[in-house]
Amino acid sequence: MNDNEKSGLEQAASAAHAVHSAVKTGKAIASAAKGAAVGGPYGAAAGLALAAGQHGKKLLVVAIVLLMLPVLFVLMLPALIFGGLTSSGTPGQPVLNDGDAITAQMDSIAAAIDEILAEGVEDAKARAAQDFATTGGDNYEVVQPFTVSSNTNSFIGQYCAAKEESWEEISLENLKQLLRNGKGHLYSFTRASEARTVEADDPDTPDVVETKQETWYIYTLVYNGEDYFADQVFHLTDDQKGLAGDYAQNLSLFLGDGSIQHTEYTGGTITSLGDVRFTDGATEVVYFNQLDQRCANQPFGTDNIGGYGCGPTSMAIVVSSLTDEIVDPIAMAKWAYENGGWCKGQGSYHSLIPNAAKAWGLNVEGCKASEPQRILDALSQGKLVVALMSRGHFTTTGHFIVLRGVQDGKILVADPASTSRSQKAWDLSIILNEAGHRAGAGGPFWLIGPG
């Protein structure tokens, strides 16, 4: 970055902080982010102007914000800093308009965070071993009841909120250093003891099976959660926590990660469907509906399953159909929340799909809309395909559905928000054309089969 660029950024950053109290990061900037997802910063300008008009902002404030949009977006969507402000993988293409460059950078950040989370697990195991050495017990075991995966946008939001005005320091290496310094806070454990009967090896009587009593200690690892990270790793104030949430939400909107999976839901439910199974595809499918009165008003984080739970409901369908375990939407929503799959007010992070599949021992592969034959082959082999749909026949916002088979050249689906759409066959072209083309985590299609 040359001196002129740095000087301009410093001035704009100062202006952005000055206007921050006038134009909050929430609704107005989120609208700008939606515009940016379509048209880069120019689309963002239109989106922000519209939002500002809707929220009664004075024209002068709108003009100031529009003039500093490039830096405001860096401040509000801070992961862009990690990959640079102006350059991208495409010559002459600003990074804000280069989806591939931003996606590649986000993948690097997610991989780095996952690596450090794994180190945190090993650190917790080592601490459990040290604790056991003080007990006088005979043996111990460590139980890890979760999948190690990161809510990348949330980490980025908290990190950048902690930096706040020291935005020049923001970098992937600095984020990794902070997380590593705090990896002792990433996981804790609980301890319980029990008496176990075990075989006692006696070299003098190898053919005789003898037993003995031992005292075992069981250490269950606990993921401390995002609030704990905010307090113990990033040491955020209450104001910074609010800013971190805005960062994460706007980043999700900008990247299309979440694409606001929201089903029209005003609290009404449909009558309990009971046990519904589809048998007209290669695989018998256990069907759940997020609007079913049994689950619609149950929690998905601080949202509800009826309005935002298509992700966990789709994975409840997949897991219940491809394993020997029936996992209903309520249980899957709880798992998604506890494992970083819930995106407040937007639905699910796209990473929920592969993470849940792996957690239940299923094989999962990402697939693009440009690979239709892979989708057809997977369905013909009895696999299920989770698809993220954008505006069209299935949704006006964003929506996860399950592709469950092929019939007469058309695609059978299990739509977690509609039994009627689940009982008709669809042209593959409709599904390909309406798929969420800015999907993350390998999507917009995930091919899932038995492990």
How would you describe what is shown here?
- With 451 residues, this protein is α+β, with helices and mostly antiparallel strands.
- Helix content is 44%, strand content 18%.
- It has 16 helices and 15 strands.
- It has helices at residues 3-19, 27-54, 59-67, 69-76, 79-82, 99-132, 152-163, 172-181, 226-233, 238-255, 305-308, 310-322, 329-338, 352-359, 372-380, 428-434; strands spanning 139-143, 187-200, 210-223, 276-278, 285-287, 299-300, 303-304, 342-343, 347-348, 363-367, 384-389, 399-407, 410-414, 425-426, 445-449.
- Strands 10-15-11-12-13-14 form a 6-stranded antiparallel sheet, sandwiched between helices. Strands 1-3-2 form a 3-stranded mixed sheet.
- The longest helix is centred in the N-terminal third of the chain and has 34 residues, at 99-132.
- The model is unreliable at 4-72 (pLDDT under 50).
